[in-house]
Specification:
Blueprint lengths: L2 H20 L6 H8 L2 H36 L4 H6 L1 H83 L9 H59 L1
Helix pairs in contact: 1-5, 2-5, 3-5, 5-6
């Protein structure tokens, strides 16, 4: 294996290792997001897009070169030369095998490079959605407690008003109804805020479920690709 294909193979194994680490179940998305926010990544972020596109171009060029080699040795006719040179047939098949191996290495490297960026993006989105969902849930719980408190106060005021009417039979002063009205308005606003928080929470839950499904799908695809790569290495051996 030449130096360039040795580098591509090492890059492929590094990608597989990084994806395996990113897919570890005991490391949460919030933990990965905190790691991604380290200062070293902020310094490298300005070069990230250029490096990402450069690596894609390099891998595409190597993939096309390997594809050209495969087509070259697949379409060659060695029937006459094989009679004159008995070792020529084995030599051409060895070159075809190397070209196919390089094609698989460059192709999987290119694919996993795109998958790795997508996985990092989904982890960040999942962590953000989980944080927002937790904040909305806390807000909804506080609004629910406030609504229950206002409802209890409202019931107590209604009971006191009923008792006062039953005992004295006096006309109620409008000034005495102001606390009741204010509590009723606050209760209504709290109910509206609670409904809004619940609707926002449901929307965030749906978004988190979608991101989780996409994350699981990419994890399954990565496992299948790794199994295919392992089976290919066993066949080569």
């Amino acid at each position: 294996m030449t130096l360039q294909w040795t580098a591509v193979a090492s890059f492929l194994y590094a990608e597989i290792g990084v994806l395996v680490i990113l897919c570890l179940p005991f490391i949460s998305a919030q933990r990965w997001q905190s790691i991604f926010k380290w200062s070293i990544w902020n310094r490298l972020s300005q070069f990230w897009n250029k490096g990402f596109l450069t690596m894609i171009i390099i891998l595409i060029v190597l993939f096309l070169d390997a594809l050209r080699e495969v087509r070259k040795y697949s379409n060659s006719d060695q029937s006459k030369d094989s009679k004159l040179h008995p070792n020529m047939f084995d030599h051409m098949h060895m070159k075809l095998f190397r070209a196919q191996r390089n094609l698989y290495i460059s192709g999987f490297s290119l694919f996993l490079w795109l998958v790795m960026r997508r996985v990092v993006t989904l982890i960040n989105q999942l962590a953000t959605a989980m944080g927002t969902s937790a904040a909305l849930q806390t807000q909804a719980e506080s609004a629910n407690k406030a609504a229950k408190k206002y409802m209890e106060d409202n019931e107590m005021l209604k009971q006191a008003l009923t008792d006062s009417k039953a005992e004295g039979g006096k006309t109620q002063d409008p000034e005495e109804n102001k606390p009741l009205k204010s509590l009723t308005e606050e209760l209504k606003s709290s109910k509206d805020a609670l409904k809004k928080s619940n609707s926002d929470l449901d929307a965030m839950k749906k978004q988190v479920e979608g991101l989780t499904k996409e994350y699981d799908r990419l994890l399954q695809e990565h496992q299948e690709l790794q199994n295919q790569l392992d089976s290919g290495d066993k066949k080569d051996n």
